[in-house]
Amino acid sequence: MKIQAVLALALVASTAACTAPESTATGDAEPRPVASSAPQPTAAPAAEGRANTADSLGAWEGTGVASDASGKELGGFTVALVRRSVGPQKTRTEGKVTLEGGRVVEFWQETEGGGARGYRLVSNNGQGGGRCFDNGLCQTYEERAGGQAFATTIVRDGDRMRLLVTELDKGQAVRFMHQTLTKKP
Q1: Contact between 75 and 42 (Cβ < 8 Å)
Q2: d(Cα 16, Cα 42) in Å, to the nearest integer?
Q3: pTM here?
Q4: Buried b (16+ CB within 10 A) or exposed e, 67-90
Q5: Could you give the angle at the alpha carbon of 154 between the alpha carbons of 152 and 155, nearest 5°?
Q6: Is residue 125 left, alpha or beta, with left meaning phi > 0 and alpha meaning psi from -120 to 50?
Q7: Which of 62, 38, 19 is nearest to 150 (CA)?
Q8: Where are the domains of the chain?
Q9: Class of domain 1-185
Q10: pLDDT tens digits, residue range 26-60?
Q11: Within 13 Å of residue 117, how many CA atoms lie on the same side as its CB?
């Protein structure tokens, strides 16, 4: 899979984490999978009924596929990441995405906060925030310069996480990346 822009996510989600690709000033239409590292709910949510940024710590691995807005598959990728606590209500995700052609792109993402007010996120490619709900569902949004953004929906079922990343260009969906991650023992 040919890529002119460097990936971010972020999974875990750098999330799982959210990471985003480098600049798309070239206007290319090639896939740029985004790994996500947003906070993920656990089987037993936090006391107030919502996930918090300490949920889903540990190592995660999985695979994904990128497609364009019409649904045409653009290529697959693998994701490997580790989420760890770096302070009160603060996590850091570090990982890598490996494209079909063997190219490896590293990413990082930090989240801070949680609960009913949501959390802030900063990555090597942008910033934004998100919120988790009491049904194993989280949503993140990360912006980059030039009108590029990534909206990520994360569903957590025990030691399995499913993500759908929507890449936006000036508010229009241009690419989708769906991924499934499994927690490593």
Answers
A1: no
A2: 12
A3: 0.74
A4: ebeeeeebbbbbbbbbbeeeeeeb
A5: 155
A6: alpha
A7: 19
A8: 1-185
A9: mainly beta
A10: 333 333 444 444 444 333 334 345 554 556 899 99
A11: 7
